[in-house]
Backbone:
């Protein structure tokens, strides 16, 4: 028998071996291209969404910012809504507890 006849017997095994080597590579290339295409589409959509958000933010900022002709109002020292703070009495003795004048303190003495 010659080498070619032996090779003809094993041709099915060789074909399976070649398919076993090539099929994962083809699978990875096909899936890789698909995922790259999906990633590009998602990136483009994200870019469009970001541009829309930026446009809305600019419109809001223009609406919120006051005109340069509007002067800010500065409150005076005395306005209608100024409150007078009550005067606080000085304690009789510094260091005494506030309950010293209460009924509880008088019962404990």
Residues:
């Amino acid at each position: 028998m010659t080498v070619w006849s032996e090779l003809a017997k094993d041709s099915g095994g060789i074909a399976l071996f070649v398919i076993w080597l090539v099929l994962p590579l083809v699978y990875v290339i096909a899936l890789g291209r698909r995922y790259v295409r999906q990633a590009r589409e998602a990136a483009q959509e994200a870019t469009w969404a970001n541009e829309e958000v930026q446009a809305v933010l600019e419109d809001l900022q223009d609406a919120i910012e006051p005109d340069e002709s509007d002067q800010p109002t500065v409150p005076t020292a005395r306005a209608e809504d100024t409150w007078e703070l009550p005067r606080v009495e000085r304690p009789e003795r510094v260091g005494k507890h506030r309950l010293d004048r209460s009924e509880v303190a008088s019962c404990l003495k």
Notes: The two ends are 126 Å apart (CA to CA). The chain has a mean pLDDT of 77. Residues 24-65 form one domain. The CA atoms of residues 73 and 79 lie 12 Å apart.
